[in-house]
Amino acid sequence: MTHGPRWGRIRRISRVPRGARPVRPKPPRLRPVRPEPARLGYARPSPAAPNSGRPRRSRPHILIWSLAGILLLAGGAAAYAWHRLNHNISSVELGSLLTPAASATSDLNILVVGSDSRAGKNASRAGGGDDVGRSDTTLLLHVYGGRKKAALVSIPRDTIVNRPACTTASGQKLTAREGVMFNSVYETGGARCTVAAVESLSGGLRVNHYVEVGFNGFAELMDAVGGADVTLVKPIDDKDSGLHLPAGKHHLDGQQALDLVRTRHGVGNGSDLGRIQLQHQFLTALISKVAGQNVLTDPARLFTAADAATKSLTTDSSLARVDSLASLAYSMKGLGAQNVQMVTLPAQLEQGDEDRLVPDAAKGAKLWAALKADRAVPGDALTGTASGPNGIGQVVRPG
Questions:
Q1: Are 278 and 261 in contact (CB under 8 A)?
Q2: Pairing between strand 209-213 and 108-115?
Q3: Closest CA to 259 of 301, 230, 298
Q4: CB neighbours of 159 closer than 8 A, spacing ≥ 6?
Q5: Are the CB atoms for 169 and 93 separated by under 8 Å?
Q6: Under 8 Å CB-to-CB from 331, ≥6 apart: which residues?
Q7: Any alpha helices (H) in 202-248, and if so which ranges?
Q8: Which residues pair with 109 in a beta bridge?
Q9: How are beta strands 90-92 and 313-316 bridged, if at all?
Q10: Which helix (H) or strand (E) holds 312?
Q11: Distance (Å, whole) CA 15 – CA 22
Q12: How much is the CA Rg of the chain, to the nearest whole Å?
């Protein structure tokens, strides 16, 4: 039998089947080369222990996954916090009554109303009374273009005004009425009629936003920012409200701060004008404190303050989101107490009734014209009236 060349038989015997790799002998005591640790997260085995078993995780790898876990948890907490804060906010639909601001840095008018409703927790803060309430305090905040300065105009609750025709939140149409108390407008027509009355009183100054706070909301918000530190130049002794504070330094909690801004008989002649001037002095002290707290650098305090603020406020629908409120607050971050001018609506005592005020038309026209033109309020618009500054003298100072 012919078998052909010898080398041909050897070649057929050693042929490797298709798809398989030849088996090579392993060098003695050598381990397979591992991938680089930086790429897959493994550390090289220690030279002192080449057969130590399963490789350990490197510290960078553990750190990366730890940070990822923290961020995941923080993201979940942030989402919860965001949802909670949004859920806190109550809103009122004012529609075309409000005029959107031209830009994030343009001048801005915000109507702030403090209601004296005793509904819910408000009763425990200020005693019993009506659930609906009236506008106990009304402030028009005009923020000048650039958002670095502002004028805060207080409208006395005892001012006699003409209420324009307006429509309530329930759709009820109210006819115009002359010679009504300003604080009764809120009681009768709510936020919508109050905005309409302020725009009528100001000769057409358009309101951009509306914010409302009750007694309990104010007290809780004050507690959330750590209260207020004030120095009383004079003692306050109001037997009607039960507020008794000697002259000197005081740290006020939320309830005490509420009692201070509501007192009428503890300062001046017991009128609403004296109370407004006391409120202006207190707000100056409060702005000075809050501006120096740097709440944004303390996440816990920031959330506490934001939680209290959003639970305390009722806003127009365009502000009823955390991002909208935060954007508005951020645009005014440069405002300090020294840049806010405190003003009271120019008014005179009504003839025959010193508990009522009548707007001073001439001086009021100067006030509103300045704000419409985004100019500082001229001094001659604020003097020679019953509502002029310094009627009670200095009572409250910061610190």
A1: yes
A2: parallel
A3: 230
A4: 181, 182, 345, 347, 356, 357, 358, 359
A5: yes
A6: 104, 105, 147
A7: 215-224
A8: 142
A9: parallel
A10: helix 299-312
A11: 10
A12: 35
Task: Report pLDDT for 299.
Answer: 72
Residue 244, C-beta contacts closer than 8 angstroms, at least 6 positions apart: 235, 236, 237, 238
- Name 385's Cβ contacts closer than 8 Å, sequence gap at least 6: 346, 347, 348, 360, 363
Look-up of token digits 């876990």? 69
The tokens for 70 are 């923290």
Q: How far is residue 358 CA from its own chain's centroid?
A: 34
* pTM for the whole structure: 0.78
Closest CA to 36 of 60, 65, 69: 60
Strand pairing category for 353-359 and 396-398: unpaired
Query: Mind giving me the DSSP string for 106-163?
Result: S-EEEEEEEE---TTTHHHHH-S--SS--EEEEEEEEEPTTSS-EEEEE--TTBEEEE
Q: How confident is the model at residue 26 (pLDDT cuts 50, 70, 90)?
A: low
Structure tokens at 229: 């530190």
Distance CA 118, CA 237 (A): 24
Query: H or E element: which one contains 264?
Result: none
What value does the mean pLDDT take over residues 209-221?
A: 89
For 106-135, write each residue's pLDDT tens digit: 999 999 998 876 566 655 565 555 556 778
pLDDT in tens, 148-178: 999 999 999 999 999 999 999 899 999 999 9
Could you give the CA distance from residue 374 to residue 144 in angstroms, rounded to a whole number? 6
One-letter amino acid of 123: A
